[in-house]
Amino acid sequence: MPLRPVALSIAIRRLVSALLPAALLVLAPLPAAAQAQSPEDDLPVAEIQAFAEVFERIKRAYVEEVEDADLLRNAMRGMLSELDPHSAYLDSEEFESLRESTQGEFGGVGIEVGMEEGQLTVITPIDDTPASRAGLQSRDKILRIDDTPTDRLSLQEAVNLMRGEPGTDIRLTILRQGESAPLEVTLTREIIRTESVKSELLEAGYGYLRVSQFQTRTGEQVGSAIRRLERDGPLKGLVLDLRNNPGGVLQAAVDVADAFLDDGLIVYTEGRLPDSEMRFSAGRETVAADVPMVILINGGSASAAEIVAGALQDQRRGVVMGTESFGKGSVQQVMPLGNGEGLKLTTALYFTPDGRSIQAQGIEPDVEVIRGRLEVAEGSGLDVRESDLEGHLRSPDEQRTRSEMSERLREDYQLGEALNLLKALNVLSERRGG
User: Start and end of every PDZ domain (predicted)?
Assistant: First the structure.
C-alpha cells in the first residue's frame, strides 16, 4: 500500500538521515504537527520517491556492489554540477587542492580552466608558466589530458589530473577555433608561484602596469608599483593590462579600482542571502587619481578583472581597449563541511556601478583592437632607424634601446595602440590648456 505524502516525507527524511553524515544533513527535523504544514513547505514527494527507488535499484541490481557513501556523494556532485559551471561538491582531496591554490603555490602547468557548453575550456594561461610559454590561449578546448578524455570529467577532476609533481610531463590535446585539427601540446609541470603585479616604463612618462590575477596583496602591490614608476617624474599616462587575468579575490579587485578612483561606487553584489548583498565604494586616498589611463582586456579577462574594468569604465576613469571579456559575473563561497570536505556554491551576481550584469555578457571595450602583430612593409623605408644601427650612440638616460621597445610594441599590437592613444589624449589636453 502506498505511503501517504506526509508519511512518505517522514520516511524519506529518516532514510536520508540514516545515510548522510551528520555534517551534511540539510533537512530540518519535522515538527510534531507535520500534518499541519502548508503545501509549499512539503518536500517534493514524487521526486524523492523516485530518488529512493533509483537508489534502491542500483543497490540491488547494479553489476558491481556500490557503497552507499559513493552513491550519495555522486548524487550531491550531480546536484551541484547542474546548477552552473562554478558550483561543485569537493571531497577532502579536492577541498585541500582548492585551499592550496588560493595560497598561490602549487605544482601544475598554470592555466585557469572552466566548463563551457560541457567542454573543459581554457579561461586564461597564467603569466610566466608552462601554459603561457607553450602558447595556450583563452577559449582553447581541452579534449584529452594525457590519454584521458575530458568529456566525462568534472571540473575539479580535470584540475586534479593537470596538477602533479614538478618536473613531470603532461600531454594536452586541444581544439582551437580556426584550426582544422586538434593540437597536441606537451608541458612540464612546475611549482606555480603567482606574482600578480609587474610594472615598467614604456617611454619616459608612460607607465605599464600588468596585473595577472587578484591575490590578497595585489592592491598594495599596485600602489607600490605606481610609486616606483613615478620616481623619475609624474606619469603622463598609464596602461593597466588585465588581459588573460582570470580574476581572484573580490576585495583585491576593489583595492585596485580604488587606487585610481577617489569617489563613487566600484561594484555591488546581489543574492538570496542577506550577507551576499554588498556594496564597495572608493575612498578618497588614491595613488593615481588623475593619470590618463587605458585598460586592456580580452577574452581571458574574467571575474575580478571584469569588476575593475567595468568600474573604471562606468566611472569614466579610463578608456577600455581590446576585445570583449570572458563574462564571469558570479560570486562563489567555499563552505567547509564537518567531515573535511567542502562545497563551492555560487551565491551572488556582481554588477558594475551603472547596474550592468557581467554574467555571460562580459565587458565591451570602448575601443576594439584585435590581437595582432605590426608588420612593416618591405621597401617602405621605415624598417631601419638610427637606433637599429650597430654601434649607434645612446642617449645618456636611455634605459633600453628604442629598437627593443619598438620590437615589443610590434609584437604586442594592442599595447602599442594603447600607448598611441595615451599620447593622443595628452596632445589634446595640452592644446585645450593652451
Answer: 95-163
pLDDT of res. 428: 80
- Greatest pairwise CA separation for the chain in angstroms: 99
- pLDDT value of position 103: 54
Rounded to whole angstroms, what are the CA distances from 123 to 87, 92, 119, 309, 410? 16, 25, 12, 17, 25
Query: Measured between alpha carbons, how far is 431 from 337 in angstroms, rounded to an integer?
Result: 62
Is residue 148 domain-shared with residue 270, that is, in the same domain?
Answer: no
Please state, in angstroms and rounded to a whole number, the distance separating the CA atoms of residues 98 and 333: 12
What pLDDT is stored for residue 328 in this prediction? 92
Same domain flag for 26 and 157: no
**For residue 87, which of 358, 271, 307, 214 has the smallest C-alpha distance?**
271
Pair 167, 275 in one domain = no
Active site residues: 303, 314, 328
**Contact at 8 Å (CB) between 390 and 308?**
no
Are both 357 and 221 inside the same structural domain?
yes
Whether 150 and 166 share a structural domain: yes
Element (H, E) at 59: helix 45-61
- Distance from the first to the final alpha carbon of the chain: 93
Among candidate residues 290, 296, 206, 306, the one with its CA nearest the CA of residue 247: 306
Question: Which residues contact residue 37 at a Cβ distance below 8 angstroms, ignoring those fewer than 6 apart?
Answer: 31
390 pLDDT more than 60: no
- What domain range is 45 assigned to? 5-66
pTM for the complete prediction? 0.69
Is the residue at 251 inside a domain?
yes
DSSP, collapsed to helix, strand or coil, labels residue 316 as coil
How many other CB atoms are found less than 10 A from the CB of residue 118? Answer: 9
Query: pLDDT category, 372, cuts 50, 70, 90?
Result: low
Q: Compute the Cα dihedral for 316, 318, 323, 325 and give only its sign.
A: negative
Provide the 10 A C-beta neighbour count for residue 215. Answer: 20
Q: Are strands 141-145 and 197-203 parallel, antiparallel or unpaired?
A: unpaired
How much is the average pLDDT of 231-260? Answer: 93
Q: How far is CA 338 from CA 13, 24, 342, in A?
A: 20, 7, 8
* The C-alpha cell that represents 207 in the structure block: 607607465
Give the position of cell 584521458.
148
Residue keyed to cell 638610427: 386
- pLDDT band (50, 70, 90) for residue 21: very low
Rounded Cα gap, residues 142 and 153, in angstroms: 11
376, part of any domain: no
- Both 208 and 332 in one domain: the answer is yes
The pLDDT value given to residue 104: 54
Determine which helix (DSSP H) or strand (DSSP E) holds 108, and give its type and residue range: strand 105-108
